[in-house]
Amino acid sequence: MTSLLRVEDLVVAYNLESGAKLRAIDNISFTLDKGEVLGLVGESGCGKSTLALTIMRLLPPEGTIEKGKIWFDGIDLARIREEEMRRIRWKRISIVFQGSMNALNPLHKVGDQIAEAILLHKPNVSREEALRMAGDLLEHVGIPRERIKNYPFEFSGGMRQRVMIAMALALNPDLIIADEPTTALDVIVESQILSLLKRIKQEFGLSMIVISHDLSIVSELANKIAIMYAGKIVEMGSIRDVYKTPKHPYTKALLDAFPRVDEPRRRLYAIPGTPPNLINPPSGCRFHPRCPFAEPICREKEPEPYQVGDGHYSMCHLVKEGIL
Amino acid sequence: MSKTIRKPLVRLEKLSKFFPLRTSVLSIFGGRGRFIRAVDNVTMDILEGEILALVGESGSGKTTLGKLLVKLHEPTAGKIFFDGKDVTYIKDKEELKWFRRNVQMVFQDPFESLNPRMTVYDLIAEPLKIHKLIKTDDEASDMVNEVLEAVGLTPPSEFIMRYPHQLSGGQRQRVAIARALILNPKFIVADEPISMLDASIRAGILNLILDLREQRNITILYITHDIATARHVSDRIAVMYRGQIVEFGDTDNVISEPLHPYTEALIAAVPNPDPDVKRSEIPIKEPQTQLLYEGCRFRDRCPKATDKCAGDIPEVKVGERLVRCILYS
């Protein structure tokens, strides 16, 4: 089997101060093969960033993995101890966060920060060697190597995001998780960062998970896509199948609501209602209160993933019944 | 859009706003003052009943221009006309009230622009009280209910007693719009009204903006970094770059055939959800400096730049379009 990451029946909950429990991820399963790029798309609060933190084992103290397995190269990341995780985190799985301004230490030179990361995991490398590697990495992401001597504030937003990508690459990982990698960047810079991610994916033969609220960002990079809604994956498949023949009403609604610059002017579809509260989620299918097609069964029974094509699954009763 | 000639509701004449740039503590003493030219000599008309999109990246000056238009900033130079009157510097209190009643702004962040201690009812009724437009509470109540219906917060009774924290982002932005609407303004400046909202909520707010124009003939300046949403809501587009309008024209024409290299790059950079559509990315360089104030402001990044671009670049008319680029002059 070539799958690099296999998530099985994962449930992650936050224990809130009020005593309530919020299931941010509710029974999610997917696989990621070597060299594949999986896009996770959903609105704020759907659980996509929690999923990234869970895989990295960086959940805040109030978050716990309640159930499920995260198989990474034969190891269950959901079960291993922190010391073991430290040998995997950054070395084999790294992450590019959104908001690179906060992720870099403003008091240290960029080169030193990258070198530090290398030295921490490779103690037999000399400091000069680590700095040379940092320079190589910067060049790889399109920054002149002499800029290792600069501080983060001397870089533009796009350049800082390039530095973050260089850092994620520093230890030659198998998997990079990019969580909203271009949010807060201007569109021209955003397109350049997307091209860079595409290039390094090819060059390093990486697997990636790209997380975004924006379907189009994910389409640029991913070959496989999972649409998340209220803690669940509601549709998953190849990017082409999901885009051309969406099989879940939420996916269809998102596509109709999306303003494309290369289509004639139209009134965009407005999805009624608001995303649900996960402390007390709707019964049955979680999208049913906003779904224009909802039937009584959608309120009563939780839908199971239903295969609609090769590797293409939808969690919708009406698709399963052939009504949609 | 009807093709009848409409009169301008707002006119900007050579409008500028400079902010002093403190490079070091010493510059307070003596050192020659340097300035950020946030808005630099902008002349344009906003027509009655149109939705004009002002598109630009962060730091382009689009928000500063919006704030000048609602008089949250004083211009450094130039003039603003509203409804035929020079409103650049209003001294008269009554005239200022008239201006404030007719010109409203909706801000980007509905989490910060609403007072958390006020109910939806009080938030929306407050402008009525400030402007002394109502005599009785019943009158206020009727008007609040009416605008709540207009912005899609129905039934109003379900919302009036709520506080902002009890509303979703989209609902808050609707309250902010209701607050602007209650005075029955002629002109609304909406500064990135959807950028903080979720994908499924955005279209609803954009449609609301379209409805306000349709049903109330309100003129709207829609400020955005996102040319794709501008494409679907606006009649005309003004593209702003480093304080200047570099291209201005009919939305369909600007999108289908951008003339300025910056507009072209901006449109080409928009990511596409269709996996079969390949973007033809245009190689745009990193800006060399933020303080490029002679010649074309885009020339340090432009793939088509020549030596001529350092010279004076006049705004020229290409058909119905205004373009500020040496390629067309």
Give a topology summary.
The complex is a heterodimer of chains A (324) and B (329).
Chain A: E1 3-15, E2 21-33, E3 37-41, H1 48-56, E4 63-72, E5 75-76, H2 82-86, E6 93-96, H3 100-103, H4 110-121, H5 127-140, H6 157-169, E7 175-179, H7 187-204, E8 207-212, H8 215-221, E9 224-229, E10 232-238, H9 239-244, H10 249-257, H11 296-300, E11 306-309, E12 312-314, H12 317-320
Chain B: E1 8-21, E2 34-47, E3 51-55, H1 62-69, E4 77-82, E5 85-86, H2 93-102, E6 103-106, H3 120-130, H4 137-150, H5 169-181, E7 187-191, H6 199-216, E8 219-224, H7 227-233, E9 236-241, E10 244-250, H8 251-256, H9 261-269, E11 316-318, E12 321-323
Parallel strand pairs in B: 3-8, 3-9, 6-7, 7-8
Antiparallel strand pairs in B: 1-2, 1-4, 4-5, 9-10, 10-12, 11-12
Helix pairs in contact in B: 3-4, 3-5, 4-5, 5-6
List keywords for this structure.
heterodimer; A: 324 residues; alpha/beta; 8-stranded mixed beta sheet; 4-stranded antiparallel beta sheet; 33% helix; 24% strand; B: 329 residues; globular
- Which whole number gives the mean pLDDT of chain A? 93
**Could you list the spans of chain A in which at least 5 consecutive residues all have pLDDT below 50?**
none
Strand residues, percent of chain A: 15-25%
* Large-scale geometry of chain A: globular
Round the Cα radius of gyration of chain B to an integer and report it. 21 Å
The biggest beta sheet of chain A reads: 8 strands, mixed
- Gyration radius of chain A, to the nearest Å? 21 Å
Q: Helical percent range of chain A?
A: 25-40%
Ends of chain B: how far apart?
30 Å
Number of strands of chain B: 12
Order of strands, widest sheet of chain A: 6-7-8-3-9-10-12-11
Task: Summarize the structure in words.
The complex is a heterodimer of chains A (324) and B (329). Chain A is α/β, with parallel strands linked by helices. Chain A is 33% helix and 24% strand. Chain A contains twelve helices and twelve strands. Chain A starts with a strand and ends with a helix. The model of chain A has no long low-confidence stretch (mean pLDDT 93). Chain B is built from nine helices and twelve strands. Chain B has an eight-stranded mixed sheet with strand order 6-7-8-3-9-10-12-11, sandwiched between helices. Chain B has a four-stranded antiparallel sheet with strand order 2-1-4-5. In chain B, helix 3 packs across helix 4 and helix 3 packs parallel to helix 5. The longest helix of chain B is centred in the middle third of the chain and has 18 residues. The model of chain B has no long low-confidence stretch (mean pLDDT 92).
